[in-house]
Design goal:
By secondary structure, the protein is an alpha+beta fold. Helix content is 27%, strand content 23%. It has an 11-stranded mixed β-sheet with strand order 21-19-18-10-9-8-7-2-1-36-37, sandwiched between helices.
Length: 798
């Protein structure tokens, strides 16, 4: 396999950066060795876990100091104190619909209520000595870089809010990640909940509640594991392709941590977390994908006619608990802390949305089991140390701390695993049917994460199974998983189809975990088709069998399955009836040019594809099912879904005036955005790095996934989500071999040599070689080896 050519300037820059470190012969503690390989990947080797965390924290701070400190200040509820209460920032996770602006006052109120000293203490109490040592080392290593001379671009050092990292900052991050996809989505709705008569929301009539216009900004993940029956060497291959933002703090950082005899893992960790959430070691690799579970519940409360802060439970009323939150403000303002009251019920905090108003009769509370998930550091540490898929499954069952993710994994024996052992409220199917509140009949965005249940009926509360690791949640024994020797995968659809044959379906699980015998999404079907093509050898890549190189080649073919399934029928219709009258949009649209463009399109989302952007906008104009995978509504399909053939059905477009209008609207949208209908994808979809535009392949619903919404008068916005950390790794006698990438690059510092290098590589539709063994690291090392001392502020190089 040819190694991608790297810039000698990047290598020289890294070497120069290392040599600027002050030499220190003082050996305060056990030395930590840090070596860098191309693209800024740190390989940290230490005698103990504190040393491993120290080297990792130091390397991470050098790449992402400013963003990491800003996020620590956010989670500590200190933005108002340093930056001003009335200032705001954009938070991609503070809204189910795709992000929103949040004031510092709102943010601080929320995080001070949720990330309390009690929750941090609970995480510390659960943690193993190794986990505590990792956290301690990470914080100290991060601060060791702060004690060094500033690197170019670290302008935040002189700004407000810049401070050292504490161990509690790291623990807050570990407690925060589990509710990132639950309570965090309701940040503003919880903070701004007020009883009626005190500035609360006005009642909404049913006729006023309409589904909002949703842009196609959803994301997901792909994961696949190939067993001995599928691979060229009879061992396992792990493919990881999670979809995360390309902006903000919810990104993944690639790092290699080694504690000889105890830990040796390469993987991607969410910023600020001291252990990878996905990756591989010498004999085992895994990935994560977002699940279909209801990871929380909302409870509708019948209120006491005498008081809107009392709610009925059975035949009695119970008082809500006012939670006082004080938000410190900037010292220069000479003002006391801002005071807020949040209202908590036995289920959780009250929230208010236009769809769930707090009236004299009703209130709604979010019950979130993720708030008690303090076990995540040890969960991922034990998965990282697993020798095979059986050990990984045992680690999942022990901690039950995968917050919102499936695990798909392969090992060197050629066994693969799919498991959804994530945290979900224990609600039986009978409860779910009997306890749903009437308001569920209305479109509710919150239904993406939580059903609305009757909270005044005590029999609608979560069940408490004695075998559950966390009270009120479904125990591991009642959750879906499977071991195989051929193929396991997930692309955000439910557990029902974890492989490419219906002989392997999983059935009979609780409805709150997911659905069964239902349509699969576009990425699920494409992943299965790619694997089937490799199983048969019918994809033009030679004899049957998977290895990392073949799967990388298939990934970058960027096939668009929706085009393969629908385009023939769409073309036949627009050629037959090219004129569409859109009275609401102001007149007649001639589809002749659009039809010709789509007819010439190669039905891929590769960089030179002409028609990809037009077709993507057509898809955006069609109704999708509100699920994690991209699925068009049933009415569009000529051949309906058949549970006996879930990979090849549904198919064919049922053309109607609605589908004609969808294409006509796509034409209007592109014209309004200044994008030619036949403009190549490389000219409109890109990442921008220091004024350089890097074209990016893929689309917002395909297997090669990127999110770049179309904006009037602007065209496609820069990519802000999609493919992130990726690996394709096989296991041989000498260890893992394969490829990886961090699509948005390792550093968020615009003046770092690693601000754009991997993004440029991804733009060329290639991945980088994995360097894992000591020999591989030594052969490709960039710059000198850095020796850190865990009790000293300085580093030495050699």
């Amino acid at each position: 396999m040819n190694r991608p050519t790297r810039s000698t300037k990047v290598c020289a820059a890294r070497a120069a950066l290392m040599l600027t470190l002050a030499a220190s012969p003082m050996a305060f503690g056990a030395p930590v060795e840090v070596r860098f390989t191309p693209y800024g990947v740190a390989h940290v080797k230490a005698d103990d876990f504190q040393g491993a965390g120290y080297g990792y924290g130091w390397a991470f701070a050098r790449d992402n100091l400013c963003l990491a400190v800003d996020h620590a200040v956010t989670l500590a509820g200190e933005r108002s104190k340093y930056l001003g209460a009335d200032k705001s920032y954009f938070d991609l996770f503070a809204n189910i619909e795709g992000g929103t602006n949040v004031t510092n006052e709102e943010s601080d109120t929320f995080y001070r209520a949720y990330l309390t000293p009690k929750s941090v203490a609970a995480a510390k109490a659960y943690a193993s000595p190794e986990a505590r040592a990792l956290v301690r080392g990470f914080a100290r290593g991060f601060n060791a870089h702060i004690d060094e001379a500033a690197l170019a671009g670290e302008t935040c050092r002189s700004g407000p809010g810049f401070r050292r990292l504490t161990e509690d900052d790291v623990w807050r991050r570990a407690v925060h990640i589990p509710f990132l996809e639950t309570s965090n989505h309701m940040l503003k709705e919880i903070v701004n909940a007020r009883p009626p008569g005190s500035g609360g929301s006005k009642p909404f009539k049913a006729a006023e509640i309409q589904a909002p216009v949703r842009d196609d900004v959803s994301a997901g993940s792909n994961a696949a594991a190939f067993g001995r029956d599928m691979t060229t060497n009879g061992r396992g291959v792990s493919f990881s392709n999670p979809h995360f933002p390309w902006v903000g703090p919810e990104r993944l950082y690639a790092v290699h941590l080694t504690v000889p005899g105890r830990l040796d893992v390469f993987g991607g960790a969410l910023y600020g977390l001291p252990v990878p959430m996905l990756g591989f070691n010498k004999t085992f690799g895994w990935s994560i994908t977002y699940t279909t579970d209801y990871h929380a519940t909302v409870y509708e409360l019948d209120l006491d006619p005498k008081s809107p802060t009392r709610y009925r439970i059975g035949d009695r009323y119970e008082a809500m608990t006012p939670i006082d939150v004080a938000v410190p403000v900037k010292a220069g303002e000479n003002a006391p802390p801002l005071k807020h009251v949040l209202w908590r019920t036995r289920y959780g905090y009250v929230l208010v949305t236009p769809y769930l108003p707090w009236t004299r009769e009703k209130a709604y509370a979010l019950a979130d089991p993720e708030l008690d998930n303090v076990r995540m550091v040890d969960q991922f540490l034990d998965v990282s140390r697993s020798a095979d898929v059986r050990e990984a499954k045992a680690a999942l069952d022990k901690h039950m701390a995968f917050p919102w993710s499936n695990l798909t994994a392969a090992d060197s024996t050629g066994e693969v695993l799919y498991a959804n052992i994530s945290l979900t409220p224990d609600i039986s199917n009978a409860q779910l049917m009997r306890c749903r509140a009437d308001i569920n009949r209305t479109y509710l965005p919150i239904n993406a994460i939580a059903p609305v249940l009757k909270g005044s009926d005590p029999t609608c509360a979560w069940r408490d199974e004695p075998s559950a690791v966390q009270p009120g949640t479904i125990p591991p024994s009642a959750r879906p998983s499977t071991f195989r020797s051929d193929f396991a995968f997930n692309s955000n659809d439910s557990y029902w189809l974890p492989t490419f044959t219906t002989k392997g379906v999983l059935e009979g699980y609780a409805n709150v975990i997911g659905n069964e015998r239902t349509m699969r999404g576009e990425r699920t079907r494409m992943g299965a088709l790619l694997a089937l093509g490799r199983q048969s050898g019918s994809d033009g890549l030679g004899a049957p069998g998977i290895d990392p190189g073949k799967w990388e080649a298939l990934f970058f073919r960027s096939r668009n399955l929706m085009a393969e399934l629908l385009l023939d029928d769409l073309l036949a219709d627009c050629r037959r009836e090219p004129i569409v009258n859109l009275a609401a949009q102001g007149g007649v649209v001639d589809l002749t040019h659009a039809c010709e463009t789509l007819g010439r399109w190669d039905r891929t989302d590769r960089l030179d594809a002409r028609g990809s952007t037009l077709f993507a906008q057509f898809i955006r104009n069609l109704e999708r099912l509100p699920e994690t995978g991209m699925k068009l509504a049933d009415r569009y399909w000529a051949t309906p879904f058949d549970p006996k053939d879930p990979i090849h059905t549904p198919r064919g477009l049922k053309v109607t005036p609605e589908t004609r209008a969808a294409l006509a609207k796509a034409v209007i949208m592109l014209q309004a955005s200044g994008v030619a209908l036949d403009e190549p994808l490389r000219d409109v979809q890109h990442a921008e790095r220091n004024g350089v535009f890097l074209p990016i392949s893929g689309s917002s619903y395909a297997y090669n996934m990127v999110v770049a919404p179309l904006t009037p008068k602007v065209g496609l916005a820069p990519v802000f989500g999609g493919d992130s950390y990726m690996h394709i790794v096989g296991f041989g006698p000498e260890g893992p071999k394969g490829r990886f990438i961090v699509t948005y690059s390792q550093s968020t510092n615009p003046q770092s040599p690693h601000f754009s290098d991997m993004t440029a590589l991804f733009s060329s539709q290639a991945l980088a070689d994995v360097e894992f063994t000591p020999q591989e690291i030594a052969a490709t090392q960039v710059g000198p080896t850095v020796i850190l001392h865990t009790e000293g502020p300085l580093a030495e190089t050699r």
